[in-house]
């Protein structure tokens, strides 16, 4: 039986105390059923440590703690003080950046430099929402001289948050920052593949001075703890980031239980479009970064590169050359760009797609195989000779696999760009302002990058059109996900009735 804490030494010789329990009411506790599960190091395929697993009953306990805080102590904390707690939390993230980044590299497999970027952005996000905490207000509305109408933007209540494994600490901050800034309380479930950084950050929540029950963090499985959250009758809102398949389940569970508010940030199959007049060096660099960053495990990955016919051959040659230059290997090695995929399951799924592409008649221009013999490493893979309908061109692969397709003109680019069920993001590379604006207006995507890719910022909203999601995260838009508007009609005269 696992204890509640253990000492871990990471491959870059960082020794720290790792919490293993469920974080409920500001304390680490064991799971009520006494179950634990192991988290695997994707670089070595060996277990790192076992953490306590949340059951349905533990979800109830965490919801009760969050409810008590929401109705009690948290209500009395002023918005300014809420903001200060978030600012303090951001500071603690920055203080412990080396620990948090090493945990991410160990548990998720992303390179240490990328992991540090994630922690820096997570701290920035918490600080950004800390700044918003005392700037949330409604309107006064002049209806007639006898009535004072005003609106209040009130917190929704207890929020269940379910996050994925591709950006564990960053998703933690995207979820907790706006929820807490607006006065809600939270029960967050990390992904079963990557529970460690969320628990370490829970320790920092307590140190930052949040009252018990405001932020509760549990480790556990989707079909147990995740389902318990989305079906819960006393959770007022659920926010989810993950696959479109699970997103549908969550929306159904919300509908069948208490109609809790739902926001979903789901999958994508985003086009990255390179026009004949693009700056080729920059376009190649962004296209490579667009798909291979985070090993292709980005919902907004530019996984379909569309190239105008005049430069198609040149771009394919350059992309092949560029892809083979990405250093694949140990996430703790300073030159590494691409680490392992997160799990055996993900590795198998991706290899299956690669196999499907090969058998379906697409050409492997580069890659297409496992990298090495240990760890879930996959070679950066570029497919050419693809058609729009192919499975590898329609479904989210969530790995280092990209297709390259030829197009004729602006209309053709828009048509192919919009040809999937997803609508999360898109990239356009051109020097022509008219082309950039025309195409970005016509693409059905929540984010369009012009002459860049994957550049997210906590000040700017992010979310999907079509089957890529509901609602927007980040920026001031995320505040709308965590507040509900109350209209107050204050009548000043005598009753006319
Ligand atoms: P992936 O397939 O990439 O692992 P998922 O969408 O399955 O992505 O997982 C994202 C998050 O959703 C994880 O925290 C996971 O535990 C959770 N999850 C999975 N299945 C369910 C479910 N049926 N209900 C609620 N949450 C779930």
How many β-strands, per DSSP?
A: 24
Percent range of helical residues: 25-40%
- Tell me the fraction of residues in β-strands, as a range: 15-25%
CATH class of the largest domain: Alpha Beta
Distance between the termini: 70 Å
Provide the domain count.
Answer: 2
Order of adjacent strands in the largest pleated sheet? 16-17-18-15-14-20-21
- Number of distinct helices: 15
Name the CATH superfamily classification of the largest domain: Aldehyde Dehydrogenase, Chain A, domain 1
> What is the third-level CATH name, the topology of the largest domain?
Aldehyde Dehydrogenase, Chain A, domain 1
The small molecules bound here are: adenosine-5'-diphosphate
Give Rg in angstroms.
24 Å
Largest sheet: 7 strands, mixed
CATH architecture of the largest domain: 3-Layer(aba) Sandwich
General shape: globular
Write down the overall mean pLDDT.
98
Structural class: alpha/beta
Low-confidence stretches: none
Question: Can you describe what's shown?
Answer:
The chain has helices at 56-71, 73-76, 79-95, 97-108, 112-132, 168-181, 196-207, 222-231, 244-256, 280-292, 312-325, 344-359, 410-417, 433-442, 477-481, and strands spanning 5-9, 15-19, 22-24, 27-29, 36-41, 46-52, 140-144, 147-155, 158-162, 185-189, 215-218, 237-241, 261-265, 271-274, 304-308, 363-366, 381-384, 401-407, 422-423, 425-429, 447-450, 465-466, 469-470, 483-491. The strands form seven sheets. The protein has a seven-stranded mixed β-sheet with strand order 16-17-18-15-14-20-21, with helices on both faces. The protein has a six-stranded mixed β-sheet with strand order 11-10-9-12-13-23, sandwiched between helices. With 497 residues, the chain is of the alpha/beta class. 54% of the residues are buried. The protein folds into two domains: 5-266 and 471-484, 3-Layer(aba) Sandwich (Aldehyde Dehydrogenase, Chain A, domain 1); 271-457, Aldehyde Dehydrogenase, Chain A, domain 2 (3-Layer(aba) Sandwich), CATH 3.40.309.10. The structure holds adenosine-5'-diphosphate. The site of adenosine-5'-diphosphate (ADP) has 17 residues, from helix 8 and helix 9.
